[in-house]
Amino acid sequence: MNIDRRLFQLIKKERAPFILSIISGSIASGMLIAQAFYLSKIIDGAFIQKSAINNLIPLFGFFGLFSILRMLFNWSSQTEANRGTLTIRKKLFTLLTEKVGLLGPIYTRSVQSGKLSTTLLKGVEALDAYYSQYIPQIFFALFTPLLIVAAIFPDDWISGVILLATAPLIPLFMILIGKSASAMTEKQWKTMSRMSGYFLDVLQGLPTLKLFAQSREQRKSIEESGENFRQATMRVLKVAFLSSLTLELVGTIGTAVIAVGIGLRIMKGQIGFQPALFVLLLTPDFYLPLRQLGTKFHAGMEGVSASKEIFAILEQPAPLHSPGVPAIQAEPFVRYPLILNNLSYSYPGSEVAAIDNITATIAAGKTTAIIGPSGAGKSTLINLLLRFQEPASGSITMNGRPIHEIPLEEWHREISWVPQHPYLFNATLKENILLGRADASEKEISDTLEKTGLLSFVRTLPNGLETMIGEQGSRLSGGEAQRVALARAFLKNAPLLVLDEPTSHTDPELEAALRSSILELMKGRTTVVIAHRLETIMRAEQIIVVSKGRITGKGTHDELIEAGGFYRDALKLQQEECV
Ligand SMILES: Nc1ncnc2c1ncn2[C@@H]1O[C@H](COP(=O)(O)OP(=O)(O)OP(=O)(O)O)[C@@H](O)[C@H]1O
Predict the structure, then answer these.
(1) Would 5-314 and 423-493 be classified into the same CATH topology?
(2) Ligand 1 pocket, 374 CB below 6 A?
(3) Cα-to-centroid distance, 432 and ligand 1 (Å)
(4) How far apart are CA 145 and CA 139, in angstroms?
């Protein structure tokens, strides 16, 4: 029997519908026996006893009643199992999305998005058959045959013994075949999720592939990947057919042996017609739940395979945070500096520290610019501040408390984050802006549009703010997307601003407009900016120079010029633009 411990744990918490399903199904099994009993009585009465029709009417009534009751209990059993399954699916989906949210963008960037979405959607869906069919069937495959044997024994113990002797053959074959089926289904699932990941990756990179004339090659790879999946599926289907053929064979042979035995005993007058018919009617139903277990085993296997990927996500170590600790302070955030104490971080699998023993103070209500060459660790430092990652050692404290003690949601509520490439959803422009604050008034929205220079752009749109902006904001230019991100930050009005300054807008007018919006946003906030422009850097009250994960300089523009090193050299080289 393949009962996955972790999947079964989920049932324990939602046991009521499953218990009801099993009770209803068990009653339906009892009704089945009553149905067979009355049918055998009717046939015996009509053809052997030649009873008058009046005597048969009550028998017909009981037969009809038990048939209807059986149908109702079977329906209720399935409905309850579906209800329980739906609750578990919803719960798992919520747990998964919450966990992925908790693991943050560092995790989602490290896995293929196609593979992740297959696990989130298809994986959870694949559990349907496991919970609604396979698990209840394990009980029925034990209970119903035993009930039938108990009903048969008083009339015909010989058939009862034959049934009991042949029944274990079915689970035995199932275990033998099931072993290879599990491995194959797992391979099939892995092939499918790999194929989805690959397919989405190629789809997203299609323009790049076309540009490099590689799309034909990729088509071949997709075809190969599809062929692998087809072969894996065919192997699983072959085993499933083989298994159902074997189980069918055991059932048919068992039924034939019993039929021949009963026939001989009727001829010898050792058993009456009615009990013989009763046993014969029930024999196929004795094997049926066992055979069905075989079929449902294969349907449920897909769920077990999918669950391995689901639990791999759920069991990922999440960044630390203790939701029980109350907010760090009742007073505004902005009053406290952020202290970085001996902060270190290495990416999983990397031997070199991306952040190496950094100690610094980020002054409250002021601007701190982080600068350094590419790969220096600037984004990693910001990610630690945003708590997308947790430091390997050291801590970030505010008002004497490590920030990881603040509930994550609360921490994020206090921060506005404007990344270089903001994520825009395939929704209206207004919905994208309102991500900053869902309950912003029309006046606040129009003020924000003005502050970010979006007002004139919105006027050119066919549906104004209600215009759909395409997947990942594909209908907006880089500069417009940046302004939408700024608009979100204006609306959010959080005391801590984390900003990755855009590097590449060639339009000088747009650049000036963006810069003045950013300066306005910075006013009165604790700002940490990965700065690329000289003007931003010079305006900062503190500049932190990072190189190879370490701080190599700290101070104001004048102090750093005085000190020489990377800062002065970089300024010399790039009088104007990026440092
Ligand atoms: N997800 C990751 N997995 C492994 N290593 C990573 C990952 N992200 C960054 N790194 C490595 O960590 C180091 C610091 O990277 P980081 O992105 O913080 O640098 P950066 O200063 O922001 O660079 P840039 O200015 O080019 O964006 C680099 O050596 C980089 O290769």
Answers:
(1) no
(2) yes
(3) 28
(4) 10
The Cα–Cα gap between 173 and 511 comes to: 72
Q: Is the dihedral of CA 89, 91, 94, 96 positive or negative?
A: negative
Closest ligand 1 atom number to CA of residue 352: 29
Q: What one-character DSSP code corresponds to residue 353?
A: -
Residue 479 pLDDT: 82
Please say whether the beta carbons of 238 and 244 come within 8 A. no
pTM for this one? 0.66
The count of other CB atoms within 10 Å of the CB of residue 493 is: 14
The answer to whether residue 329 scores a pLDDT higher than 50 is no
Name the class of domain 5-314. Answer: mainly alpha
Residue 532 CB partners (closer than 8 Å, separation 6+) = 371, 501, 502, 503, 577, 578, 579
Mutate to test the pocket of ligand 1, among 107, 343, 380, 528 (most ligand atoms within 8 A of CB): 380
Find the 544 Cα to ligand 1 centroid distance in Å: 17
> What SS3 state is found at 426?
coil
* Beta-carbon contacts of residue 248 (< 8 Å; ≥ 6 apart): 291
Query: DSSP state, 468?
Result: B
Question: Domain residues of the chain, as ranges?
Answer: 5-314, 324-414+495-503+524-579, 423-493
The radius of gyration of the chain's CA atoms, rounded to the nearest angstrom, is: 35
Cβ atoms of residues 44 and 274 within 8 Å: yes
pLDDT in tens, 39-70: 999 999 998 898 888 999 999 999 999 999 99
Edge-first strand order for the sheet with 393-398 is 355-362, 338-345, 393-398, 401-402
Cα 501 to chain centroid, rounded: 33
Ligand 1 pocket, residue 376 CB under 6 Å: yes
Ligand 1 contact, 506 CB (< 6 A): no
Report the alpha-carbon distance of residue 251 to residue 242 in Å, rounded. Answer: 14
Distance CA 515, CA 521 (A): 10
